[in-house]
Amino acid sequence: MYFCKANSSSKEKASISIKESDIEFGITSDSVDRLPNPAELFLGSITACILKNVERFSSLMNFDYEKAEVTVKGTRLEKPPRMDEISYELLVYSQDPSLNIKLLQKNIENFGTILNTVKSSCRVSGEVKKIGF
To answer: Most buried of 3, 20, 95, 124 (most Cβ within 10 A)?
Structure first.
């Protein structure tokens, strides 16, 4: 079971407490340029899921990587308001010849808790690239 707690101050901001982390987010038009909004936090949870699974599958698939970067974009449908389509690009910086990008993408898309939850409600597409350095 997962757990988080959030609170807000009227006409100000809000924050989520998860374990030892506090994440502030915007709830007013005044904070739109400074703080993430709920949709951006939602997309952020997808990025966290993808990066967590890169680390997880690096052990299971026995490959090394130096770092990974992911960009997630969401398209919002106005009526009813919801995410309609989400796309991601994952860059894995690795010189390991045993890194199987196609298998990594398949595993991320089939075993990521957040990604699987999102895939059940909207279109998700992605691209994974290996970056040698």
So the answer is: 124
